[in-house]
Structure formats: structure tokens, C-alpha cells
């Protein structure tokens, strides 16, 4: 009996020793006194609990909801009948009413509202519905089709809640944001996500090349709505999605608040957008571009041409210079450059830091109006239309032939080019982009509006 007791005691001590050693050496104790380390569960089974998150969206959502409105536009359109036109030459059409909707953001207590230009384009009547279901008729104050921004005004009998602008330049990739709008007419919808990228260049023809990209869900109807940070500050106007289906598939894009604010301030003060430009042409650097140019730099904006009468020319910038900074803003891509310049006006000065022959320089450059810049092509010096030209020709697009250096084209001086190779020319930027890609000896067909009001066609070879 005594022998059995000794064996039992020895076995008990051995088991305890083994268990203690396992706990000490294999399962190491957690030494953190503040936050225990927890192994993550498999992603598919992991539930994200925002209620326990360190980021609280509730206050930002509550404040923003009251500043975002539903925008309804009514447009009268003419629908043609191709069969009647083909057989009978009938050129008339049936008038139909088209109703569209989107979102907008109140930006002042007295009723100014910002939205997208495409939300109210061609509208004959605009109606605004507040979060409290009150409705008002809105007046279109002004638009900027290039940046897809429009400014509306309602006359309310009360002081309206409004959004506070944040600084979109200080937004960080990975930062939490909220998108607030009215997708599919579902009023006052809030979605959350993070900033996926900044200064996103989509290569579109719209002119917008400096989007804030997020993964907050945005769908048709969100256009013109608010993108806010966790403090409820307006950092962007939701504008478009990247999708093959027309619905949200993972990414959405917003016009930065700094660009938006500058546009609406211009419209309020001047009645139109005041754009200042450096007066350079070129492109952003990357591995392939740098290799082709035979340079070491792989980031920045490479200057291929300096325009006459521009601030860049007067400051001494020249072909081959690489812009790496504007004021304190680093320039790595074209979107960085265009996004920063779009927050400035003509006659403002920016400090341009650039590299030339492996040395770094900085010079002040005075921005000039786009109307002063010209582009030369095949003996023609082209220029943007000014307000006098637009009134004279009763058009809002095209480029003017300012000077002619070849006598065979003298009759074109003072006329307006409306299209090039069948593509409508909005402004000098459009014309420059098209003509710069032309191969040597390639023919070019242009549509011209003469000073007498006639349409003529010319072919350049």
C-alpha cells in the first residue's frame, strides 16, 4: 500500500511538472498590461464591429446629413424620329420631359448649394429637398463643366445648416471618410470607407485629373453629394464611379474640396471660373518615359515645351526641366501638378522647384490667364476664345486663329476652329492634345466658323 502511494505521488508530481513546463515554455504568458494580444480570426469569419472601433462616425454622419440635399432636375428634350427623317426628310421632333436626380451640399446659411454639373445639365427646372423634407426651387448660379461643378441658390425663409470645408491637401491615404447622398433616390444614405488614393488621374476627357479615390460605396444618385472626414469636414464632392455595370463595384471618385471651393468662389465673385496656368507642356515621368528621354529621374513633371508670353517663359523655365515641387506641394505626377494649379488664379505666384542637369533650382512663376496662351500648328497660331469672341460668334467652344505665318492661310486669321478631324474642340487644351499627337505629313481636316458666320472646311497636309 505504501509503495502504491509513493508511485501515485511521483506520478502526480511528474504530471504537474510537465504541465507547468508546457505552460511556461510553449504557451508563453502575455506580458502586456494594457491590451491583450488576440489572434485574428480567418477573414471570412471575421466580423468588423464598428461600434467598438476607435473611430466614431456617428457625429460626423449626423452633422453631414442635414447639409446634404436631394436635387431633382427637369429637362425638356426633343426626341427625333429617324424613320420619318429618312423617308420624308422630317426634321421636327417630339418634346418630352426628362427627370433626373442627384445630390448637393449646402455650403452657406443663406442657401448656396454645390453639386455636379452633370446633375443639373440642360435642366429647365431644379428642385431641392432638404433632409427635413422641405422643398425649394433652385436657381443655377454658374457651372464649370471642365471640373463638373455647379453652384445653385435657394431662397429659404430660414437659416440653413451648411457644411464646413476641410483642407483636401491634408487628406491622408488610409484615412476614414464618409460618403453622404441619395443613391437610387434613397435619401440621406451614409456609407463609410477609406481614402484609397489621392490625385488620381483617370485619363478622361473631362479635364478632371486630380480625384480623391475612396472605397466608400457610391452609386447613381450620389453625384454631387458630400465626402467628409471623421470630423464632418467637407473634403470632396462625389462625382463618379469606376464601373462596367453602372453601379458601385469598389471605387468611387470625388473632386477635392480645395478645387471645389476655388471654383465656387470664382463663380460668386467673377461669374465664371478664373484659371491660371504655368504655360508649359509635357508629361509625368515614369520608368519608360525616363528611359526614352535618357534621364535618371523617374518622378516629376517633364517640360517638353514652354509657351510664349507665359509666366514659365518669363521665369526662365525651359525644355528639359523637371518640376518636382510647387510651393510646398510635391509633384510626382501630372495630376499633382494640375490639381494644385487648379486651386490658383491668374496673377498669383507659385514657387516652382525644378531640376536641371542634376541641380535643383527654385523660381517664382506668375500664373497667366489661359486666354493669353497660344499654340502654333502648320502656320497657324491658335488661342482660346475670350468673352468678346464668344459673344461675337455666339458660341461657347472652339479656338481662334490669332495669327497666320503662311500667306496661303491668310483668310483664316480671326476665324474660329470648331472641330478637328471630326472632334469638337472645347478649348486650346483640346486642340493642343489632338494636334500634338499628329504624325508628320498626316492630313488634318478642320471645321472653321468664319467672321461672316459661314462654315468652311480645310484640309492641312
What is the fold's blueprint, element by element?
Blueprint: H1 2-26, H2 58-65, E1 68-79, H3 82-88, E2 94-106, E3 112-115, H4 117-120, E4 125-129, E5 135-144, E6 149-154, E7 176-181, E8 189-200, E9 211-214, E10 226-229, E11 234-241, E12 252-256, H5 257-270, E13 276-277, E14 280-284, H6 287-293, E15 301-306, H7 311-315, E16 322-326, E17 329-330, H8 334-341, E18 349-356, E19 359-366, E20 368-369, E21 374-377, E22 380-384, H9 387-393, E23 399-404, E24 416-420, E25 423-424, H10 428-436, E26 444-449, E27 455-460
Antiparallel strand pairs: 1-2, 1-4, 2-3, 3-6, 4-5, 5-6, 7-8, 7-10, 8-9, 9-12, 10-11, 11-12, 13-20, 14-15, 15-16, 16-17, 16-18, 18-19, 21-22, 22-23, 23-24, 24-25, 24-26, 26-27
Description:
The chain has 461 residues and is an alpha+beta fold. 20% of the residues lie in helices and 35% in strands. The protein is built from ten helices and 27 strands. It has helices at residues 2-26, 58-65, 82-88, 117-120, 257-270, 287-293, 311-315, 334-341, 387-393, 428-436, and strands at residues 68-79, 94-106, 112-115, 125-129, 135-144, 149-154, 176-181, 189-200, 211-214, 226-229, 234-241, 252-256, 276-277, 280-284, 301-306, 322-326, 329-330, 349-356, 359-366, 368-369, 374-377, 380-384, 399-404, 416-420, 423-424, 444-449, 455-460. The strands form five sheets. Strands 21, 22, 23, 24, 25, 26 and 27 form a seven-stranded antiparallel β-sheet that branches. It has a six-stranded antiparallel barrel with strand order 1-2-3-6-5-4. A six-stranded antiparallel beta barrel has the order 7-8-9-12-11-10. The protein is globular, with a radius of gyration of 30 Å. 34% of the residues are buried.
Amino acid at each position: 500500500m505504501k509503495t502504491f502511494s509513493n508511485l501515485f505521488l511521483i506520478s502526480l508530481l511528474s504530471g504537474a511538472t510537465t504541465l507547468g513546463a508546457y505552460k511556461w515554455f510553449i504557451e508563453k504568458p502575455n506580458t502586456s498590461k494594457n491590451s491583450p494580444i488576440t489572434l485574428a480570426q480567418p477573414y471570412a469569419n471575421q466580423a468588423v464591429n464598428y461600434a467598438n472601433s476607435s473611430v466614431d462616425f456617428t457625429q460626423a454622419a449626423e452633422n453631414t446629413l442635414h447639409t446634404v440635399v436631394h436635387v431633382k432636375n427637369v429637362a425638356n428634350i426633343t426626341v427625333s424620329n429617324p424613320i420619318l427623317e429618312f423617308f420624308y426628310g422630317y426634321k421636327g421632333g417630339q418634346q418630352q420631359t426628362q427627370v433626373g436626380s442627384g445630390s448637393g451640399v449646402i455650403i452657406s446659411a443663406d442657401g448656396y448649394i454645390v453639386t455636379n454639373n452633370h446633375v443639373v445639365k440642360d435642366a429647365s427646372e431644379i428642385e431641392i429637398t432638404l433632409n427635413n423634407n422641405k422643398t425649394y426651387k433652385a436657381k443655377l448660379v454658374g457651372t464649370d463643366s471642365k471640373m463638373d461643378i455647379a453652384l445653385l441658390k435657394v431662397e429659404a425663409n430660414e437659416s440653413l445648416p451648411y457644411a464646413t470645408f476641410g483642407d483636401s491637401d491634408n487628406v491622408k491615404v488610409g484615412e476614414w471618410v464618409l460618403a453622404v447622398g441619395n443613391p437610387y433616390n434613397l435619401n440621406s444614405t451614409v456609407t463609410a470607407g477609406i481614402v484609397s488614393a489621392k490625385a488620381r488621374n483617370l485619363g478622361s476627357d473631362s479635364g478632371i485629373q486630380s480625384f480623391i479615390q475612396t472605397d466608400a460605396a457610391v452609386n447613381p444618385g450620389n453625384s454631387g453629394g458630400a465626402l467628409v472626414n471623421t470630423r464632418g469636414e467637407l473634403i470632396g464632392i462625389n462625382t463618379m464611379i469606376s464601373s462596367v455595370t453602372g453601379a458601385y463595384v469598389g471605387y468611387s471618385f470625388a473632386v477635392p474640396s480645395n478645387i471645389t471651393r476655388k471654383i465656387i468662389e470664382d463663380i460668386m465673385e467673377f461669374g465664371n471660373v478664373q484659371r491660371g496656368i504655368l504655360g508649359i507642356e509635357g508629361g509625368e515621368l515614369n520608368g519608360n518615359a525616363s528611359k526614352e528621354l535618357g534621364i535618371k529621374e523617374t518622378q516629376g513633371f517633364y517640360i517638353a515645351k514652354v509657351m510664349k508670353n507665359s509666366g514659365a517663359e518669363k521665369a526662365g523655365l525651359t525644355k528639359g526641366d523637371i518640376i518636382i515641387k510647387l510651393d510646398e506641394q510635391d509633384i510626382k505626377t501630372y495630376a499633382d501638378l494640375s490639381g494644385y494649379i487648379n486651386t490658383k488664379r491668374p496673377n498669383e505666384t507659385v514657387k516652382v522647384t525644378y531640376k536641371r542637369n542634376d541641380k535643383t533650382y527654385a523660381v517664382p512663376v506668375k500664373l497667366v490667364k489661359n486666354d493669353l496662351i497660344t499654340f502654333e500648328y502648320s502656320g497657324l497660331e491658335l488661342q482660346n476664345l475670350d468673352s468678346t469672341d464668344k459673344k461675337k460668334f455666339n458660341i461657347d467652344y472652339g479656338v481662334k486663329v490669332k495669327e497666320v505665318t503662311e500667306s496661303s492661310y491668310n483668310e483664316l486669321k480671326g476665324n474660329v476652329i470648331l472641330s478637328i478631324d471630326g472632334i469638337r474642340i472645347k478649348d486650346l487644351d483640346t486642340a493642343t492634345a489632338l494636334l500634338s499627337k499628329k504624325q508628320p505629313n498626316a492630313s488634318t481636316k478642320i471645321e472653321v466658323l468664319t467672321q461672316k458666320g459661314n462654315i468652311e472646311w480645310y484640309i492641312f497636309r
